[in-house]
Amino acid sequence: MKRIAIRYRTKPESADENQRLIEEVFRELTEKAPSGVKYAALRLDESVFLHLLAVEDSVNDSVASLDAFGAFRNGILNRCLEEPAQAVVQVIGDFEMFSK
């Protein structure tokens, strides 16, 4: 399973809109329920966001192919103060957070 973390800071005036767009992604994920995908998005403070994505090796861009994700990505750089930084992550410990 590949795990990715993406962190960025939005402009303060764009943070609520960014959250709304993320919520739309989760609505569509819930509707379509793609297998092999685990995804969480966190708002760390007023305008810092962290996305955690885990996908099975056999899954190809299930999240990226969503219409709501396309809407979220459209204009992301205009909403951001800091460009999104992405890293492949390794889970060191997990107490029922990512294992379900």
UniProtKB/TrEMBL annotation:
<protein>
    <recommendedName>
        <fullName>ABM domain-containing protein</fullName>
    </recommendedName>
</protein>
